[in-house]
Structures are given as structure tokens and as C-alpha cells.
Amino acid sequence: MKHTRVTALAAVSLAASLSLTACGGDDSKKDSSSKGASSSSSSSSSSSSGDDSKSEGGSEAGDAKAGSGGDSGAGTAAKGATEPGGKVTFCRTADLAIDAANAAPDEASGRIDITMINRGSTTCSATGFAGVDIKDADNTSNPVERGQAQPRVTILKPGDAAVFNLAYDIDNTGDSLASPTNILVTPPNETHSVNLKWPAGAGDIKGAYTDVQVYPTHTTD
């Protein structure tokens, strides 16, 4: 009887032990499953974050590529600046071959054509009025007034020529008080001058040097 009670007690103890072991196994499995789910969630979050980063990076690259079109546009603008009417640098005196010649159309109207040839290697602008002073035999210099005319766009490619003229009335009485010997020319938008001889055969100036007028440059075409 005592033996039977011990055996029964041992059986109950073994069953309880097995029950506890089974219960602990379930918890372990649940913890493992929970950790796996957490790890998966973290991995998914990381992957999502990476996709967002890639998407943003692609957008920035697209913006950068789109922005490069501005450079292209700038390149086109720079090219357009060399075309007639565009923005170009003004012709330098050192790059111009300048000459003066008598071009009077008749005995009453005096005219001197001053030609400027672009002997430089780049296109330049000679648009506007040249500065002109007439030097007299007594070594005085007299500025020439501008005529009533609007400047015309004058773009010179290498080898091209521009011309402007001086106009005055001719004195045929032989009593002219003007004795011009030289013409000092400063091209438009320049500060350096050239000294030209007064053209041989040009008629005498009627009145004073202030009666001579200079007109804007234009091309010879």
C-alpha cells in the first residue's frame, strides 16, 4: 500500500515536470517568433528607408541633370553674343587700321571719309560716334561736333570695314581762316587715338572748326 502511494506520487511529479517543460518550450518558441517578427519589421523599415533615400537621390540627380540645361542655354547665349546686334566687345584702336580720304561729292559740300578696318582676330563692335579733333597749323586742337543722326549697329568681323565721315561747307573764296593739318581720331568707346594727316585735295573749311560735324559709323556694305 505504501509502495503504491509512492509510485502514484512519482507519477504525479513526473507529469508536473513534463507539463512545466512543455510550457517553457512554448514560451521560448513565442519569444523566438517575436524576436523574428521584430527583426523582420526592423529589416523592412531599413529597406523602406533605403528606398526613400534612393528615390530622393534620384530626384536630386534629375534636378542636377535638368539644371545642366541652364549651362547649355548659357552656351547658346554666349554663341549668340557674337552675332550682329548681340553683345560684343568694342573694337580696340590697336586692332583697327584707320585712314582718312577726301570724299567731297561736289565743290560746295566738303566730306572726309574715315575708314576703320578690323585687323584683329575677333569680331568687335564699332557702333557709335568716334571722337574727332582737328589740329590746326598753329598746333591748337579743336573738337568736332556730332551731327544729328542716330548711331547704327556696326559689327566688324576680322577684315570688315566701317566708315564715318566729317561734313562741312567748302569755302571757295580763298579767305578761309582754318588751316587743318591733322585729324585726331578716337574710335567709339575707346580712349586711345590715332593721328591722321588731313587729306590732300580736301576743300577749305567755311567758317570755324565748330561748323564741322562728325557722323556715326556704319558698314561699307
From TrEMBL:
User: Does the keyword field hold Signal?
Assistant: yes
Span of domain DUF4232? 91-212
- Region Disordered, residue ranges: 22-84
* Region forming the signal peptide: 1-24
Alphabetically sorted, this entry's keywords are: Signal
* A Pfam family this chain is assigned to: DUF4232
Residue stretches of biased makeup (Low complexity): 34-50, 74-84
**Stored InterPro entries:** DUF4232
* Top-rank lineage group of the source organism: Bacteria
| Protein name as it appears in the record | DUF4232 domain-containing protein
